[in-house]
Amino acid sequence: MTPLLHQHARGALATKRLAMRACRPCFTASRVAPRAAGLFVVARASKSASPASSSSKPLYQPTSARDAIETATRVFKEQKDVDEAVRLYRLSLDMKPNEDEARAALYNLGCALAKQKKWAEASESIVRAINDYKLKLAVALKDDDLKQLRERREWMDALARVKGGISRGTKVDLRTEAKAPFRLPRIILFSGLLGSAAIGLVIIIGRLVKSIAGGPDAPDLTESLTNLGVNTVAVAVLSYLLYRDVSQKQEAVRITTREEVMGRLQIDLGSDRVLPLLKFRGQVRPVIVAGTRAFVEKAIKEADSQYINLRDRAVSVIPVIFESSGPTEVDPEDKLRALKKEFQKEGRGFDDTVAAAKKAAAEAAEAKARSRATVLGGLLDADKRWRLEPYAVDEWKAWVLEQKEFAGLSASEPNCYIQVQLDGTVRSSGVGSPPWRQLVDELPLLSDFRTRLMDGVGPQE
Question: Where, by residue number, does the polypeptide cross the bilayer (predicted)?
Fold first, then answer.
């Protein structure tokens, strides 16, 4: 019998293994009984074929879910027709598959959709296989064929929906508590003490009423008044301390929520690689420079004299350019700026001769690092470049405008900077150009022990 399970997915047929799958397909076709001549027709012509020739060939109609999945595997493996494989995997899901077949179909469908770069659909298909058909998450996390998908924001969002996964709200809570690890115990302690003090105050008020009423068994009035004063002060102090910690936590949640939104903003690394900023945490200190094109280019050029020192501190700039809205406004230097921008992407383009020499040395060092292809958390050394280009710029613009309002920056000043720590917290922001020299003085080297112990600790906006 043809095995049905993915080699990592164990189910009711745990003894059966797969020889291949669509990315490495879940079904092998090596033992399938041969079909009558002409029964199987190539489902889809190659991409170079004309529509007419493609439409002249009928689509293969499988007889069962198993048949559909096995055929999809063979089509993908032998004829490299991902489109037809996707069609057949989807068709198998409508043919009343058993649990093992549905798990295999959904997982392989996700792999095939990832090949088509349909990231959201691929993520959803794999999540369904995990949540509904008991596929182990470790299978998807270790599969080399899904490496590019795992870099995408769509996959990170999908993980929040996986059974046993961590939701975005939980991540915010965990990061908030990590910034102030003793706040939650204090809130619990103050809440308990406040409850005890409040109960004691109610009891004391009752005793005070009896003292005022008098009688042979009435408590001592002086003692009741003293106890009333002590408990009243205790309730007031504990209420203030509890209110302060709760308010600080709410503010910290607001800040962390904004930082998590920032972490979902994406960076375009070229060669069809788009990573969320979250992937750069622990390895890059981004400085977002936002404003007009002239301001952004000038601000980045001002970093010339501090370039080497900034790179030693893992500083990278993210330019967010708010273009002029005037439809008739034409910048005669647009082409020149575009050329400079291309040079700056590679760490070149400073006018200063001395700075150019320094940059050449830095490029040689970075090239040496790239040749080693060092990987830290899935991020190549080559990815940690000086200038990181934003992807989906409108999302960046919206976040910058909200952050300016959140940080109390002047709305009338279009140009600003936002400096982010290694751990993804906003360290500082302001209008105008970033204080490059000040950043060099204040930020420890990436190799400094203070970076490992203290990065991100301090006053937060």
Answer: 187-205, 225-243
